[in-house]
Every structure is written in C-alpha cells, then in structure tokens.
Fold each of these.
Amino acid sequence: MKKFNSFLFAVALVSSSLVFNACGEDEPTDNGGSNNTSSEVVVTENIKANTTWTKDKTWILGGRIAVESGATLTIEAGTVVKGQAGTGANATALIIARGGKLDAQGTASAPIIFTSVADEIKSGMIESPNLAPDFNGLWGGIIVLGKAPSSLKADVPETNIEGIPVTDPNGLYGGNDASDNSGVIKYISIRHGGANIGEGNEINGLTLGGVGNGTVIENVEVIANQDDGIEWFGGSVNVKNAVVWNAGDDAIDTDQAWSGTLDNFIVICGDETDHALEIDGPEGSANAGHNLINGWVKGDAASELGDFRSNAQGSFKNIYFFNFDAGMKDGRGDLSLDAATVGNYGSSLTFDKLEITTDSSNLSKIFKGGTVANATKVTAPTVGASTAPFAGWSWAAKVEAYK
C-alpha cells in the first residue's frame, strides 16, 4: 500500500470543493484562458485553442484537463499549477493529447511547479511551506501522448494510456511518426501526485506515451508520486537532467520498446520505492532499446537497484548506486534479470561502468544475470550524474536530498 496522508487528502477535498478568493467571494471558473482577473483560475474544460497560463495567477486543474489536438498550452516560467483532489474517474491530471502541445519553459530562476491544492506554495518558492516531500496521491500528474511508434500487444498501432479511463478519447497514444513533436518541457517540478483511478492503476508523475523525439524534455523533477516517477510507454523522446525523489512505486519505469535516451538522472529512493529502475521489454513484435546514461541512484532499505524483465533491452552506462546495504540484508537491493531477459545480456541488453558503494564483499549477490562483470565496488564514484543542472530550481537539490 502506497503512503497516503488522510488528513491532507481531507484538506485537499475541502480545498477542491470550496475555493475562495481573498475577498471571500466564490472563485470564478475559467475555461483555460488568461483573461480572468482573480489570482486563482479554476480550469474545468479541455483546451481546444491556443492558450497561455501566466505566472501572476495560480492555475487550478478542476478535473482531467486535456490539451486537444491542434491546440498549444503555453505556461509561463514561474507559474504554479495545482490539481484538485480526486480519485477514480475524477482524478485530476493535465493531458497533452496526440496532436496537442505543451510549451512549458521554466528557467533555473523561475521553474514551473505542478502540485496539489493542499500545497500552500506560491510563485517564487522552491520548497513547499506545509507539505513534506513524501506526501503523495493528492492529485494526478502530467500525461503526454504522441504519435511515435510503440511495441504494443497484438501489434496494434495505438492504445489507451494507463491512468485515465479508456472512455476518454484523449487517452490514445501510438502511431508511426518517430519525430512527432508534443512541445517543450523545461525546468518543471511535479509534486505530491499519483492519484488512484482503480485497483493498481495510479497516475505517474510524468507519463510519456508514444512521445516522439521532436519533443524537448529537459530539467524535470518528480517528488512524492504515489506510483512511478517517470514512465515511458514506447515512443522515441529523449530526456535530459531528471530527478525522481520518493516515488511510491518505481522511480524510472520503461515499457513497450521506448527507443530514446535518459541522460543525467538522479534517483532518490524513499521508504516505499520498489525499484530505482524497472525496465520492461516490447509487448509486440517490434524491438527497440533505450539508453540510460550518467545516473546517480541513492537507495533505501525497501528498494531494489533494478528489475530487468519481460525481454528488456537497452544500454545502461555510467550509473552509480549507493545506500542500498540495509535492504540487501533482507533480500532486497539487487539488480536482477528475469528468465525472459537474461538471454539478451551482452547483445540487445548491455551494461557498462556500473559502480556501487557497499559493505558487501560479494558483488555477485547484488548484480545478477551476469551483470557483475560490469560492476565495480568503489569508495567514491568516478561515474554518475552531475548535480549542477539541478541547482537553484530543484527542491531535491536545495536540500541536497541525494547525499
């Protein structure tokens, strides 16, 4: 069971149904435009035309809001977006549908923050003034969907993304355009999300379904998501400079033959994080591997380094692991390849320069399926991520949570 704070959820529910402005008047509802004069704008309708959300207002997701095909949502640097509470079909989320675009270009001095209405954070703040960095499930998350190829069951060209009802037509992803462009995402922090829409079906902090490599994603932080931090479902998009802290399930999760690269990433496992890395293979006949390079993974007693399964493929290089020893003592903490994957080792699944700081004298108990040949025990890393890109705008960097 993922961690969930019932008190904060109750606060969020109240905040969701009773939103007031400073004068005590009912907060006006807006369709996503920027002409409202209130300091808070509740968005309740899908975005069907080009729209800008400005940093002088707090934008509140009043439901599952989709940027529909042909429309671009521009979010100014320094803007705070908050999701109302909701579960099941009423879980709040921002969806960038196929053909829609998100232009969310924060900066190192003015990041864009997505969080819960229970969060009292305002534009210009980095740390939440009232929510701890392990409270999760208070709203949904961000879902970006594109037209790039994905290896899907029965080789169908498209399917519905997990985390939103299958009845929502804006939930489809997949296609044949590897260079598809869903917009630009830079310097954003996504916090306290992962609302549950059904048994075992939560929303990831950042979901990337069939997203093409014409999309730019750089400098992204996901904190305290009830399910995975970032999950790729096929597609070809590249992601650079990502930090995931206190994921309730897996920090980094890849599926359906995603063929892009994750470069310079930091994982900070929490006491509910299952795997730092969960790597799945193709579900259809199409094969493709991805690259994870330059990573820094801080463990926790309950977490495992990585689970490579279901014919997983790809290249994993320059990754440093530490702080897993407490978990290794009770059978956790290992990097393993399942029976359907171990045959790929050395061919379509490769490892290079894995380093670990550990009390263990036998690395073969940690790095399994032959991967120990690529692992080295160190007292200080010579590979891994650079923390410099996260300085100034990331909550995790501000409190040095990765140390």
Note: Helices lie at 6-17, 325-328, 395-398.
Amino acid sequence: MNRVAVTGIGVICALGRNSEEFSRALREGRSGIGPIQSADCTTLRFHNGAEVQGYDHRPYFDDKRADFMDRFAQFAVIAAREAVSDAGIEWTPELRESSAIITGSCVGGQATEDVGFFNVYKLGQNRVHPLTIPKTMANAGASHISMEFGITGPSYTISTACSSASHAIGQAYWMVRSGMAPLAITGGSEAPLSFGILKAWEALRVVSPDTCRPFSKDRNGMVLGEGGAMLVLEPLEAARARGARIHAEIVGFGMSSDACHITQPSADGAARAMRAAVCDAHLMPEAFGYINAHGTGTQANDTTETSAIRAVFGPHADRLAVSSTKSMHGHALGAAGALEAMAAIFALRDGFLPPTANYTEPDPECDLDVVPNVSRPAQIEYALSNSFAFGGLNAVLAFRR
C-alpha cells in the first residue's frame, strides 16, 4: 500500500483565481460573498452568492473551445492546469495511459440547461444550442481535463450532491494508495448561479437573505457559491524521489449513508463517516487538531454536526478547532469538498486555522471552538474535512501535515 502525497493544487472561486489568492483570503478571513452579478436576482428572496467576480473565459480559452464548455467545466480545467503545473509533472506516454481523473459535480452545466429551457419555453424557439447535451453533462469537467493533458487512463465523475468532490478525492486516494493508478487529478467544480437553480434553492427556504454565519446563534441559512479546485495525488515515495513539493499527505477516507431522510442531516451518519476516516488512517481521534466542518449555516446542519463531532471525539472535542470556510467561499455544492479539502491542506502546510467568518453570537448547541472571524496560528499535524450531502451521503477526508 502506498502512502499518498498531494503534490499539486489549483483553485478558482470567489476568494481568488489561484491557490495563492485563495490561501491569502482564508488567512485574512475575507468573505467572497456579495451580490450575484451573473444572474438577475430581482425576483428572488436572496441576492447574494459567492461568485467568481468578473469572470470571462478569454484569458483561459479561445472562443471556439469555450463554446464547447459550460462555466463549471471551464473552472475544472482552470484548476487542473494550476494543479498540474504546481506538481511539475513530466508526462510520458505510460503516465498518460495509466493516470486517473476523478472529479465531482452535483449539478453539472446548469447555466447551459437554463438557457435552453428559456429559449424553448419562454421564447418559443424550436431549437437549442447544438452542444447543449455535452455542455450540460456532469462529466464534462473530467472529459475536458483528459483532453487538456492527453490522459487516457480511468476517468469519471461522481455526483453525490454536496459530498461529490470529497467522494471523488477519496476514490482517487484509494486508487493511488492501492497502486491502481500512479497519479490522479481529482477534485470538483460547480457553477450553480443561474436563475433556474437559484429559484429551485429559493423554494427550499434554506438560503440566507444576507450572508452565511455557520455555528452562530443568529445563522439563517447557506449562501451558494461556485468554483473549482483540483489536487494532484501520487505515491509519497515517488514524489520524494523526483523532488516534488509535498503540500500534505492524505491518510484516510470514510463514507457512510444516513438511510433516514432525503434532506435532514443525521448525527449518527456523520459520526460514522468521521469514525471511518479516522479508522482508515489508523489513528486515534485525539491525534486530530482541526476539522474543516461541513458547516452550512443552516439551523439543522450546524447543531447536528456539532453533536456528531462530540460523539466521535468525546472530551477531545473541547480541544479541537472546528471552522467552516463556507462562510467565505460559499456552498459550492459538488465542488465544496474540494475547496474545503484545500483549506484543510493550507491549514496544515502553512500553520494557521482558517476562521469561521461572519460569526456574531455563540450558540450553546454549537459549543465548539469555531475559530470565530479571525484566523489563528497553529501547528496542527492531522486534520479532517467533512462533507455531508442531501440524500444522507457522507464523505470525510483525513490529512497529515
């Protein structure tokens, strides 16, 4: 069994167009939440999101290639380019043939789908864009990454709502650990800020009318975000042998299903996934110093997650730092786990705890050290990243400095 290193990281989201900008924003506790510019929100109950401000494809893709790609697939390729460059991969025919690409996306090309529905149902047009299907499909990000680098090994996309990217990273980790793949590009991307899906989220009544305040007593919902984040994984010994920079090591992955409710979270299900990740890492719970929480900012999630953490860590929960970076980059649905895994990696690598932004008032039912508003220096050896999805599908990643 191989130990698995993270040797490449790449990101684009509301907090920045690359990993350096993302890390700086986390350290500064700067929120990327603001008025949505890419969709008309005048008839919605909420107007804010965590958007990649002023995004235009032209610095990254020519018009012809961009015409084949929905915004979410563009984010996937942009993040993968940075991660591969950061890892310093020297491609050989053998490596291209055996490397894996495992991505996560919850909703795929919603913006493309929205335009097609608008044209057909509102404008009464008899045709839609001829590339609507390949732009909409959730696996488009993985497919475009494979074409970008000429990778012909196993490539697929996992769609498990808000756990999609974490499931993808976990599967890629197990593939590299077992020797099934010598290298993997993995993560997630999402671009859900189009009118139709915003209207659907409005109907659920879980989106905040102003901002995301995880674990704060006055929290009033989540805020949707967008972006992409990708990691390059390879065996630790191979990375050391070629002199690669190692950002962190993945040491465990756990999954569970609540089997209880399609939207309401379960503390038991979340606890089982965390225990599975800790067990897979062959560690005791007391080894962990930080958890990047799922932390959506809804009443139900944050109290349930607190209960699950206390069930797994017992008295050690009082010594754990637990923060939700969704307070800054928003809830990016299928990409959320990748953004949050990256935040956990930066916490370990750079020696700081990302804060829970927008925090105003302690909640007795969320009685954890949530690192309120301001980042904090800390030398942590092990961290977890939690993802708990609608449908009760849970995924937890464990990292080592």
Note: The chain has a mean pLDDT of 97.
